[in-house]
Specification:
single chain; globular; 361 residues; alpha+beta
Length: 361
């Protein structure tokens, strides 16, 4: 169906018209394409070639003024004070008991900090940040989601595509490093990383230039990818999502997101709980990937024999069958464990996005 346009109609229509010409299918409650009618091809391209997906519905929150980085450092789990302009990292917004609100990506620029948050958490995180800005804090907050667009280039051929666009110096950049570039005459920013454990880049561009940049990426060889493919890749890769794996029922350590947590940075919201869980090895459950022989009902219990050991949180269908994510009690076992999910046979497997050990953090 044709999408409805409520904000920035000229700019949005221009981008979405380009996407419709490429076969985009829209659903009423989603402002980005759900599919381009090429899901199988796009999944293969993400693994072996290059795809481009529109993630413009993800929130983009801007912090400015002189306390911006220190303030955010004190509100989230990672060590942001170590970052210099042109660098970035993943970090977590958590409650005082370390329950995870969202996994975010932070980009530090010369005069601002840009925070990328999940679509459903755009307003909640904006409200959360604003709540902790007190009198005397030199921090200004703005939601710039509607003024910008965000695309993900995913796949091993991403570097070749950038070279085709005369942007050859991006290979092997550290994760979340970013640089200003010009694509199709539009001032843009490219950051290393895709939001998944797959090679590629994130492209941020002013909304006015979104259609031109999208078309340039397609003409350079990227296969368009819809939200349905992103969701399949997210589950296969193991990236936890708000409302599914990231809820008030689970904490940040159980979510296996050590890449976004620092234990050495000092005090922050939720720090005491995370440190205690680490010190006393108090992780009672963790996320695992689950290969399944059929599709269980959503939110099915995970059992070993007659004993319930966990719950299914996400499910997708792949070329090899059904694949899910779920929390499983630590004492039940890990990779290779045979389970039943809603009566369906399954097996626990590792997923590449998660980090179960804190290493030297």
């Amino acid at each position: 169906m044709q999408p409805e346009f409520s904000e920035s109609p000229d700019f949005s229509r221009s981008l979405q018209d380009s996407q419709i010409q490429a076969g985009a299918i829209f659903e009423a409650d989603l402002p980005v394409p759900v599919s381009f009618g090429n899901d199988v091809e796009a999944v293969q391209a993400a693994r072996q070639g290059v795809v481009v997906g529109d993630r413009s519905h993800w929130g983009r929150i801007q912090l400015t003024d002189e306390d911006r980085l220190t303030f955010l450092h004190n509100q989230t789990t990672n060590d942001l004070n170590r970052l210099k302009p042109g660098e970035g990292c993943d970090t977590l917004f958590v409650t005082s008991t370390a329950r995870t609100l969202d996994l975010a990506t932070v980009y530090v620029l010369e005069d601002e900090v840009l925070v990328i948050v999940s679509p459903s958490q755009r307003q909640p995180i904006l409200t959360w940040i604003d709540r902790y800005i007190f009198f005397g804090d030199k921090v200004k907050l703005a939601d710039v989601t509607d003024q910008t667009a965000l695309f993900s280039l995913i796949g091993p051929a991403s570097d070749t595509l950038l070279e085709h666009l005369n942007l050859p110096a991006f290979a092997r950049l550290p994760y979340a490093s970013h640089r200003p570039v010009t694509i199709a005459g539009q001032a843009s920013r490219i950051a290393a990383g895709t939001g998944l454990a797959l090679p590629g880049y994130t492209v941020i561009v002013p909304r006015t230039g979104a259609a031109a940049v999208w078309q340039a990426l397609i003409e350079a060889g990227a296969i368009p990818m819809g939200e349905r493919v992103w969701e399949q890749l997210r589950i296969e890769q193991g990236r936890p999502a708000p409302g599914r794996e990231l809820t008030e029922a689970y904490n940040a350590v159980e979510a296996c997101l050590w890449q976004a947590i620092s234990l050495n940075k000092g005090c922050y919201i939720g720090q005491e709980t995370i440190a205690r869980l680490d010190t006393y090895k108090g992780v009672k459950q963790q996320i695992w990937g689950i290969r399944l022989q059929a599709a269980p009902a959503p939110d099915s219990g995970i059992t070993v024999g007659e004993e319930k050991v966990g719950i299914l949180t996400s499910l997708t269908e792949t070329e090899q069958g059904f694949f899910g994510l779920g929390y499983v009690r630590t004492k039940a076992g890990g990779a290779g464990l045979k389970v039943q999910v809603g009566g369906i046979d399954g097996e626990l497997v590792e997923v590449p996005f998660l980090e179960r050990d804190r290493g030297g953090k």
